[in-house]
Design the sequence.
């Protein structure tokens, strides 16, 4: 007992504060120094920020459950702001069944048919901005490209796509406490949420898209019609903000690291690794929660059962105990093992699509752009879980 009391895992830190979000990396260093886990009195929850603990926690779904939600809200104590995701906010055995349905749809060979339309659109998007010279990298590339290719792939018609990013903003703010930032993002919920739900119905989806593929599980007796709609909702929830943030951060890192840009220009086949290194450096989903399903003992420290634990993926991805020079953007780094997509049972189910988008857009960029630089101050996007930019003024010169 004395051993337990000796430890003071309290950390007076607020990962949802504007200043923290503007530059979270010093805060992550403090979190990692605090020990294998720390307690945040302000939120009455725990956190883990080291690679050494975050990765095993992600792998141990029996101890660190998702069924009580992967946001701050504890579904056993408070009503979730939206009906829980059947993929993200579930544990086995339900998760195994729903995951199987979606796994079949995103089976990599089945996604290869997306490469050609994605590549064509990547080239068109890059050619448009090269013609402009100066442009907003967020609006014109990081948003424009995924907002075209991903809804096309899912099978949405073109009307109302402007609802997709506001919905994502709510969903990812909803990973944090339901603070002023979350509330502001839900100001449009009364129009955005019904639009999203309508687009999840079988009738709204093109017969050749990923959405319609999900509904095949209903015919096969593997899911109900209602479950299929909710699984399509997962595509529309998780599939855009994440790739938008990743592409925006990749553009920022390339524009501000001219040596790495030169290497990339000389060898555009590095595109895949540029994207991976971006996910490590500026992890699009910075953090998510698990809930303990039993008391946990970590190096003499005890976390009680049914406690929320914030897993700081972005911190694990910059942990100097695991990575050499973690704060250096190095496009030839061996970046395997980063936890930007998570790991284990809940590892990102859209990663093949995300990587395809990243690889193809960055390849088009390296092939058609000779130089890239900031044309003005970047403006950060503030969200409880997603790290990206609101605006990124860029200047490019054609190759
Ligand atoms: C990271 C994720 C993110 C947001 C929403 C969902 C999943 C969902 N994965 O399943 O709704």
Sequence:
């Amino acid at each position: 007992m004395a051993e337990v009391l000796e430890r003071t895992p309290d950390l007076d830190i607020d990962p949802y504060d504007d200043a923290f979000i503007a530059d979270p990396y010093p805060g992550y260093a403090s979190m990692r120094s605090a020990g294998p886990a720390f307690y945040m009195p302000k939120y009455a929850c725990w956190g883990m920020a080291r690679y050494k603990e975050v990765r095993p926690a992600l792998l141990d779904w029996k101890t660190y459950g998702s069924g009580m939600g992967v946001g701050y809200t504890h579904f056993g104590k408070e009503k979730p702001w939206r009906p829980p995701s059947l993929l993200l906010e579930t544990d086995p055995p339900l998760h195994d069944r729903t995951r199987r349905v979606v796994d079949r749809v995103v089976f990599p060979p089945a996604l290869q048919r997306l490469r050609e339309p994605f590549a064509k659109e990547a080239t068109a998007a890059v050619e448009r901005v090269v013609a402009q010279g100066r442009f907003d990298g967020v609006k014109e590339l990081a948003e424009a490209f995924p907002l075209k290719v991903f809804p096309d792939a899912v099978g949405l018609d073109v009307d109302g796509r402007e609802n997709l990013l506001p919905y994502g903003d709510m969903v990812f703010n909803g990973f944090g406490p339901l603070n002023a930032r979350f509330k502001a993002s839900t100001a449009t919920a009364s129009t955005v949420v019904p639009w999203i739900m309508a687009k999840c119905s079988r009738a709204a989806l093109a017969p050749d898209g990923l959405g319609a593929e999900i509904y095949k599980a209903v015919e096969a007796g593997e899911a109900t019609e209602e479950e299929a709609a909710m699984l399509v909702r997962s595509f529309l929830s998780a599939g855009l903000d994440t790739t938008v943030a990743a592409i925006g951060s990749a553009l920022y890192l390339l524009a501000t690291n001219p040596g790495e840009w030169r290497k990339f220009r000389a060898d555009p086949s590095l595109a895949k690794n540029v994207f991976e290194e971006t996910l490590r450096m500026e992890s699009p989903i910075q953090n998510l929660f698990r809930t303990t399903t039993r008391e946990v003992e970590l190096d003499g420290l005890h976390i009680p059962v049914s406690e929320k634990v914030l897993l700081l993926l972005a911190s694990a991805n910059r942990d100097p105990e695991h990575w050499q020079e973690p704060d250096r953007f190095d496009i030839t780094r061996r970046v395997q093992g980063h936890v930007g997509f998570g790991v284990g049972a809940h590892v990102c189910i859209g990663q093949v699509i995300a990587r395809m988008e990243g690889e193809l857009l960055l390849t088009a960029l390296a092939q058609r752009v000779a130089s890239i630089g900031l044309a003005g101050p970047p403006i950060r996007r503030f969200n409880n879980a997603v790290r990206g930019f609101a605006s990124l003024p860029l200047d490019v010169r054609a190759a």
User: Anything to note?
Assistant: The longest strand covers residues 369-374. Residues 85, 87-88, 171, 233-234, 237-238, 285 surround 3-(methylamino)benzoic acid (CB under 6 Å). Residues 1-5 have pLDDT under 50 and may be disordered. The chain has one domain: 18-398.
